[in-house]
Design a protein that fits this description.
It is built from 3 helices and 3 strands; from the N terminus they run αβαβαβ. It is an alpha/beta fold. It has one domain. The protein has a 3-stranded parallel sheet, sandwiched between helices. Helix 3 links the parallel strand 2 and strand 3.
């Protein structure tokens, strides 16, 4: 079983972001959640600009990749 499937099967804590505004502190909150035991982060928001959503997604991907955690992105439609 590859590591992503193993993480998906064995996760204990799953966090979903539901942003209502372009919060510049959300990345720090996500990092703290991952350090605190979150195994999967899901990015979702229908209320932020596409550019903010894309940039945040790239930043979260870097963090989750380094920490070997899963990252899921919802569409923003």
């Amino acid at each position: 079983m590859n590591s992503k499937k193993k993480l998906l099967n064995d996760f204990k804590l799953y966090a979903i972001t539901d942003l209502n505004s372009e919060d510049s502190g959300i990345l720090l909150t996500i990092k703290e959640a991952l350090r605190g035991g979150v195994d999967i982060i899901q990015l979702r928001s229908k209320n932020v600009s596409d550019s903010f959503f894309l940039q945040l997604g790239k930043q979260i991907r870097q963090v989750t990749g380094k920490m070997k955690k899963l990252f899921i992105v919802n569409d923003n439609e």
